[in-house]
Amino acid sequence: MNGTQQMNGRLTELYRSVTTSTLEGAFDQIRTRLAELTAELRSGTPQGQALPRPIQAANAVNLVINGKGNWVSIAQASDGGVATTSQEGVHSGFWTKARIVGVSIVGLATITATVIAMVQCPF
Fold first, then answer.
1. Residues 14-60: pLDDT tens digits?
2. Which of 37, 89, 30, 29 is nearest to 59 (CA)?
3. What does the longest C-alpha to C-alpha distance in the chain come to?
4. For the chain, what are the domain ranges?
5. 3 state SS of 71
């Protein structure tokens, strides 16, 4: 800023010191996510198919990057083949039992406090 409190000029360079451990941590997370993505794509691609289908790739990216849509695949050997099952559609939504109980307690406490306040301070 200059003397008249106005911005003038422009920013041409900005430097920030970053420690080696910060960069190593970032690169480690990137490497881990890429390995998880590769594993998800390989596990979702049928044998003999070169590339996964677009929906499989989208699901793998969603799982690895966002952590949503987790699924469990169980494979076990059977007579002359492999039987596989997968658990789908299990989502633990926002309203868990603990949150419902907590919201109920807070709601009742608010209503009770409002009634007490109205009794103590008549209009």
1. 788 888 888 888 888 889 888 888 888 888 787 888 888 888 888 88
2. 37
3. 85
4. 13-90, 92-123
5. coil
